[in-house]
Specification:
With 307 residues, the chain is an all-alpha fold. Helices cover 78% and strands 0% of the residues.
Length: 307
Amino acid sequence: MSHLPPSTAIFSPSVARLAASTARDWNYIDSWLSTKFHGHKPPAFERNLETLKALLALATLNEQADEERDIVARAEAAALQELKAASKQEKDVESGTGGEGPMDAILAAIEMGLSKEGKAALDSMAALAVQTGTAYPEPEHLAQRIVELEGQSFSLEQTAERIKIMQRFLDEESEKTEARLREVGSDAYKPPSDLAKRNLDMQRKIKTMAAGLPELGERLASDTRPGPGTHVTVEKLAKQEEEYNAILYEKKDIDSQLSLFQGLPHDTNKARAELESLRDDLRRLTRRRDAVFEELVERETPRKVGR
């Protein structure tokens, strides 16, 4: 409860017990740090639950290491006594009679001098040294390795959680993509079955109208050309212009219908590209038609006849 302000009242019994337990743990850690720093104040650090757990684990390992060191020291002292006794016995034994060497005697004395707890602690320390790959294990070094492994384990857990979130996101996007593909592959996005027939019909209409365009041009020229002894009036020119505009409107209507189907391939991208090309041609023809009409008006206007 180190994150609560001192003035905050605790009404829950469970919260109060947790706060008391946390306070006892911090008192224990403070006293342990004081012994390790020989009465001096330890460096400032963040006092939170994660730090408390790490310090408690480190203190526990340190105490176990101190106990193991005491056990080893007592074993070494006992081994030294046994070695002295063995040395006295070896003075009375001739060399090469098959007695045990000094190293074997030392190891035997250490093994005999260890208690059950000491043997278990020594085995645990040896196993931990093998697992961490430490050639010359020291309690402090092993404690540091344990803390590092805990940090690596936490980092790997966080990475695995992020990978799970990313995997869920990728699965959702994959499902959306598959649904979109199924939608695009449905009948709604397929071209009409009679598209080829409609294209042929429109092409026939185009050829028929293209064949009739010269005749219409000649008729227009003959109608607008003044005969001998006749004069072009504004009313006649307006009537001819209306007829010409009606023909142009009909042509525009047919061109707009043709542009939807003429020569469209089954591929959507190719159809769009061809449609854009046809639109460019239509705009070019429209500009040419406007230019021809302006020349016709300028040529047939009454003002030019008066001159």
